[in-house]
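JOB MANIFEST
job_type = single_chain_structure
chain_count = 1
residues = 104
[input]
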Amino acid sequence: MKEELKKRRIAHISKNGQRRNYSSNHSLAQIVFCENCGEIFRRVHWNNRGKRSIVWRCVSRLENKGVFCDARTVREDDLKQAVIQAINVVVDNIYKRREEKQRL
């Protein structure tokens, strides 16, 4: 609990000095960062040619405040799949280490 409260007090400060406050609206909020400019990605409800979808976009692309970023838009389904794959890799490594320790 204390760690969560501390996390909420500390804001992310981007490379251009923009301060971003913690938001807990979504489980991936404040966790996904742009590899191009270092800003956070924000969840956006998109209506592209009548097709509704949820995507994640770099904040610097959304706000147009002097920093231009050409990071691609990421579909939420693709982001979720990437997170699941990363978690599975970590869990597999943990189990492999345990098995190796038990053999010794």
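[summary]
Residues 76-103 form the longest helix (28 residues).
The helical segments are 2-9, 59-63, 76-103.
exit_status = 0
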